Amino acid sequence: MQVKRPFHPVAGITAYEAEAYCTWLGEIKSNSVRLPTEMEWEYAARGDDARPFPWGEEFHMTFANTAEGERFSTSEAASMVHDVSRLV
Question: By CB atoms within 10 Å of each CB, which of 16, 25, 63, 80 scores lowest?
Answer without folding.
Answer: 16
